[in-house]
Amino acid sequence: MLAPYAVRVETSQGRRHPEAPHPYRNDYQRDRDRVVHARAFRRLEAKTQVFSRRYSDHFRNRLTHTIEVTQIARTIAGQLGLNVDLVEALALVHDVGHPPFGHAGERALDGAMREHGHFFDHNLHALRIVEDFEMRYAAFRGLNLTFEIREGIIKHSHDYSINEHPELAEYLLDQRPPLEAQLIDLADEIAYNTADLDDGFEAHLITLPMIRASLPVFEAFFREVQLKYPDAPEKLKFNEALKLVLNRFVTGLIEGTTFNIKQTSIQSVDDVRRHPERLVGFPKGIDVDRLACKEFLHTNLYFSKALEPEKEEAERVIRDLFAHWMRRPGDLPSAYREKSQQEPLPRVLCDYIAGMTDNFILEQHKRFC
Ligand code: MG
Prior knowledge:
By secondary structure, the protein is mainly alpha-helical.
């Protein structure tokens, strides 16, 4: 069933702490289940994707976004003959390192860290979560995930240089990740591009005429839908057209990747790893649509006036709390006070804050600031 360039679970480079095999779940299926049972995974439910819960209960949060990425990635992996279990585990874990309040939160946390000569990176943070912070097993700290999952956490979205990150040397930074990991980044993008159009439309921040005028791919499908369902309510026509856009991106990613694999005569995971470029990608025509979508959302949604007050508040909450605990580390819970004996205080604060949900950090802000 698997393509010759798919990762095979039997050839996994294994776990840090060897474990006896399970009678009927393979190692990647077990990793997938471990991610779903992790506390950091459950907390995604109360973390902002784009719209905070105060905006509406109907919009995506980081958990429902993660589920959408997972089903998109699974579909694409199945068509390409890739290892679906590995893809599923990677998709489910891909956002666990995100702090509260979406990108505004990430920016504020990174800014606070840089004032003390450190930085915040959500992929590196996700690795710390699965390696160290999750406490579920008596025999070891963390989730003891297989090498391929940990490698995918680090390498799915960009390449880290060995000079800047010598601590990541075991993850073969001079090589591309397997196709299963490469796929996650673009499945993520398909998921949020289409979902953010949907939520943005529902929130009345972007309108049908704006989308139709700016996104030719949407406009073409919308015209088809109008011919087919001339009397349907606008919202349902919008849904039908958006569904076709999503399908086009998914089909495009399957076709583009298949083409790249043929062009480069890739035969094995090793070939994928040693190939100088990533092989998962869209055909040129669809890439134009993808970029148009991204740009449209940047201008009209992510950086819209309407979302500004929330983003500013998010940044202020994180800045205030960080500064407060820097001044008064005695106000931290005892576990974090203890940790600050072994690690720099800014790093301990960053780990604490990054793990928080939107609700919890707002409570903390009320209490201390
Ligand atoms: Mg994501």
